[in-house]
Design brief:
heterodimer, A: alpha/beta, two-stranded antiparallel ribbon, 30% helix, globular, B: mainly alpha, Fumarate Reductase Iron-sulfur Protein, Chain B, domain 2, four-stranded parallel sheet
């Protein structure tokens, strides 16, 4: 069985600013990181690899410099890393992205090994749509298990998986046949730290690059042309400086009491 | 009946064979260690050896050191007596008395005196081990056996000598009183005993004393290379091969595929590391100085060195023949004192190395073992995962956005460093840039620099973490990357002189970055402020300073690791008009705050908290101000004072103390 883990290189959003004129992200000088939710998907795929001795392939769609993200995956122990990179993939929304990723997964399914699981982070921290994972499941006809915080059971002989889904205020235990697509939340695991010998091996390893000559997708279904979503505006919410209450240095207790009073008046304290 | 010389010759031969075999067995194990050059500056090395091995400078630093000094030097003198004994045992015609009289008299006097001094020292050591041992586990059978053997040697010597004297006395028919008086001038103790011996049993006393002496000596020879008393053979070379520079850093690693990273097997240590393990006498001074040991953590620096020896003896012979180790060195399956918890408990404060009379280097070995955990196994306390990722991704321990590095200067007029127009780079450091409390120190520093007219600038958002914590924590791969980036940045920006307010940045730039080809003039703010006062650039009005009593806490990486002890004290004296009060443990004996070696970022489990122990020690001086010179110490003292709920005592960095005095 092959596990495919989808990862994305994202700008470190705590450091991102928005250009007020063009309404686009200012990316200059902003370091890229692996989408934090994806690191948990990656970790889970590696744990399953350790347990079931299956293979793991990491795929990522992005510009050529996204190779760094895949090298991190190699350093952590994935068997194969593929970068899906082509100018015609650029400008993709979640639909077009899921088309490219699905095509890559299908290709791995036929050429490498039968895909049993696809793991994704629950969403990326730059787009925050949470649509790409479910999009892949729909296009490939895989079972769709989102917001997974624990894999309860994976039975490879029966080809079934049972997971816990972390929903608001409750957990849901669901079971599904394989192949399945899981999107995962942070509570699933604690990602491992790369070992130096693995990092050195990854630095020398080749990340395979698949462009559209390899995937042969209809250009109307990928990139900007295949993207029905149109972003009309990106903006930072305006921050309003609130009222300054009391003097915390001179009278900390009185100021705290003042704050509590205000919050209770606005019904913002659960009593 | 076989003659005594023959029996003795056979026994001596067997003993020397056992001795030689023991020495060969142990010393040949050094060859499995890695290469390391400790042969540079031979002249200086000889001087160091004379100072520390023969003059016993460090041994004498503690009260009982004098006892060891006496044993050491009397042993050297008694080498003459024992050589005579052995030669005489083989060839009865060889005797000291055949020496010229002018030489013989002072020699036997010295031997007699040395013997009684040695016996006295052994008795003191015996009593001390029973009544108040240096550490509880020091009451080992081994220690008592060796003391008993030395004691037996001395007692046997006296009876042997005395019976010989008495025999001569009775044979010569001289007046006992005048004979003993004359002999007493040559060998006072032996002559005293000679007068007490019964004439009739002189022959049997002599025989018994001779054999007792022979057996004690031969047993000692056999035992020596197979016990901790091997230090008699290794301590002197260990002082010769000591690191001539302070062991405040660790060597670089080469990141090439196929290399091993860190140490998890004895043969990954260098030969000098292995020699260290044979040089330990288990005096326990390291553990009595170690903040982790003293607060009941699993770390015991003596235990680490001892376990390296134990493991070397177990695995060494096999490793020498290319076999795999039979017993792990570190971790769960490893030796008792090299468990994970012990290795992570070290604050790298260097107190153990400062205390060791024979210059054993405990700290670098611990860091090497951490390197194995982090780099080869990626196994470490879970709180370090965030630290490593924050350091790698955002170049600061908290993972705060690098763009916030200059927030402290928002309302100040701070200029960027420009090598053409600014003299000093003021390297603010992570704590000075991000930590709310330590930002006050940064602001105080900038005010003082401006007041004194110093030409300074900052790197601003380009500044990166120096990497101290990750190096001490064994993440050399990450440190290597951070150091190379910083070195490139400093070179590109033409940085030559750096002011730092953190001893960790200080030591890293000064000592660690040299390995990366960067020679900087690094000045800690304590030294800079001292110089500015001396040069009259900071003017103080002493009569109005009101700090109450100030107690100063030495930072390990400023003091012990870099020998800066006076500058901060002079700054405090200048600012307050009085020298600071000293804690019981100060200067090179100072006790760590608990935050070094990356412990700042880790949970402290078990035992007493190190910072609480130190805060309590500081409070014994009844200070109104505890003065520190390090942002980590600042945090540890602030936290500690809150924990002991000590009202009215404040913690100040010395820059703040100075600023209050100058700018008020």
């Amino acid at each position: 069985m092959l596990i495919v883990v989808c990862i994305k290189q994202v700008p470190d959003t705590t450091q991102v600013q928005i250009d007020p004129v063009t309404n686009t992200l200012v990316r200059e000088g902003i370091p890229f990181i692996v989408n934090p939710y994806d690191t948990h998907a990656l970790e889970e795929s590696l744990r399953l690899k350790d347990r079931f001795r299956c293979k793991v392939a990491a795929i990522s769609m992005g510009p050529p410099n996204a190779e760094a993200t895949l090298k991190k995956a190699l350093a952590l122990g994935v068997d194969k890393a593929i970068l899906l990179s082509d100018r015609v993939f650029g400008g993709a929304d979640t639909l077009a992205t899921s088309n490219v990723l699905s095509a890559a997964i299908s290709k791995l399914n036929t050429e490498m090994d039968e895909v049993g699981l696809v793991l994704c982070g629950k969403q990326t921290i730059d787009g925050d749509t949470a649509q790409v994972g479910p999009g892949i499941a729909s296009r490939l006809g895989y079972q769709q298990l989102t917001l997974v915080d624990r894999i309860e059971n994976l039975d490879l002989s029966q080809k079934r998986i049972r997971v816990s889904r972390k929903l608001e205020g409750r957990h849901e235990i669901v079971e599904a046949p394989l192949p399945a697509m899981l999107t995962v939340v942070r509570e699933l695991n604690r990602p491992r730290y790369p070992k130096v010998p693995m990092r050195l091996a990854a630095a020398d390893a080749q990340v395979e690059v698949w462009n559209n000559q390899v995937l042969k997708l209809d250009e109307q279904s990928i990139g900007l042309k295949g993207s029905p979503t149109w972003v009309s505006k990106i903006f930072s919410p305006e921050r309003v400086v609130g009222e300054i209450l009391g003097d915390g240095y001179a009278d900390p207790e009185g100021t705290a009491a003042l704050l509590i009073e205000k919050l209770m008046a606005k019904d913002m304290l659960p009593i | 009946m076989t003659s005594r010389p023959t029996i003795f010759a056979v026994l001596l031969f067997i003993s020397l064979a056992i001795f030689a075999w023991g020495c060969w067995r142990r010393f040949s194990l050094l060859t499995i260690g890695q290469r390391e050059d400790r042969f540079d500056n031979p002249g200086q090395r000889v001087l160091e050896m004379l100072k520390y091995a023969f003059a016993q400078k460090r041994v004498l630093a503690k009260p009982f050191g004098i006892n060891h000094f006496v044993i050491f030097w009397t042993f050297l003198i008694l080498l003459v007596a024992n050589s005579e004994f052995i030669l005489n045992g083989l060839f009865p015609s060889i005797k000291l008395i055949k020496l010229p009289f002018e030489l013989y008299v002072p020699l036997v006097f010295m031997i007699d005196m040395a013997s009684i001094l040695a016996l006295g020292a052994v008795v003191i050591a015996y009593v001390r081990r029973i009544v108040a041992p240096p550490f509880p586990e020091a009451r080992t059978a081994e220690a008592f056996v060796i003391l008993t053997l030395i004691g037996m040697l001395m007692v046997a010597y006296f009876f042997l000598n005395a019976s010989e004297l008495a025999t001569i006395m009775y044979r010569s028919n001289s007046d006992p009183a005048s004979f003993l008086a004359t002999a007493g001038k040559m060998m006072p103790v032996s002559a005293l005993i000679a007068g007490l011996l019964p004439q009739a049993q002189l022959g049997s006393i002599h025989g018994a004393a001779w054999w007792l002496h022979a057996l004690a000596l031969l047993t000692f020879i056999c035992y020596l290379p197979n016990s901790k008393h091997m230090h008699i053979l290794t301590a002197i070379p260990n002082c010769f091969f000591r690191r001539l520079e302070k062991p405040n850093t660790v060597p670089r690693e080469e990141f090439k595929a196929g290399n091993t990273f860190g140490v998890d097997r004895v043969d990954h240590f260098t030969w000098k590391d292995l020699l260290d393990s044979f040089s330990c006498t288990e005096c326990g001074r390291c553990q009595n100085a170690c903040p982790a040991s003293l607060t009941k953590k699993p770390l015991n620096p003596r235990g680490i060195i001892h376990d390296i020896k134990v493991n070397l003896l177990k695995n060494g012979p096999g490793l020498k023949n290319g076999q795999q180790p039979v017993k792990a060195l570190i971790g769960e399956e490893g030796e008792e004192h090299c468990c994970d918890e012990a290795i992570w408990a070290c604050t790298t404060c260097g107190a153990c190395m400062e205390a060791c009379p024979v210059f054993i280097e405990q700290m670098p070995k611990i860091i090497q073992m951490r390197r194995h955990f982090v780099e080869t196994e990626a196994r470490f306390p879970e709180e370090l995962l965030n630290l490593f990722e924050n350091m790698e991704g955002r170049s600061n321990p908290w993972g705060i956005a690098p763009s916030e590095r200059t927030k402290w200067s928002a309302t100040l007029d701070v200029k960027p460093f420009d090598s053409d127009t600014t003299e000093y780079l003021f390297y603010v450091g992570c704590a000075g840039s991000f930590d709310a409390r330590n930002k006050h120190v940064t602001v105080a520093m900038t005010q003082l620099l401006d007041k004194a007219g110093v030409s300074w600038g900052i790197l601003g958002k380009e500044e990166k973490c120096c990497g101290d914590s990750v190096r001490r924590l064994g993440n050399e791969y990450l440190f290597d990357k951070m150091a190379r980036e910083n070195v490139a940045l400093f070179k590109e920006r033409g940085v030559k002189k750096v002011i730092v307010q953190c001893p960790h940045c200080f030591t890293t730039f000064k000592n660690d970055y040299r390995q990366f080809g960067l020679e900087l003039e690094v000045i800690h703010h304590s030294e800079l402020l001292r110089n500015l006062v001396q040069d009259g650039r900071l003017v103080l009005d002493k009569t109005t300073a009101e700090f109450g009593s100030v107690v100063f806490h030495d930072s390990c990486y400023l003091g012990r690791h870099n020998d800066v002890y006076d500058a901060p004290r002079e700054v405090i004296a200048a600012a307050t008009g009085a020298a600071p009060a000293e804690m019981e443990r100060n200067r090179n004996n100072a006790f760590c705050c608990g935050a070094g070696g990356g412990r700042m970022w880790m949970e402290e489990h078990g035992g007493e908290r190190i910072n609480l122990a130190r805060v309590k020690e500081a409070l014994e001086q009844k200070p109104e101000t505890i003065c520190v010179s390090c942002p980590y110490c600042m945090t540890m003292f602030e936290d500690g004072l809150k924990d002991v709920k000590s009202e009215g005592v404040r913690v100040r960095d010395l820059a703040e103390v100075m600023a209050e005095a100058v700018l008020r």
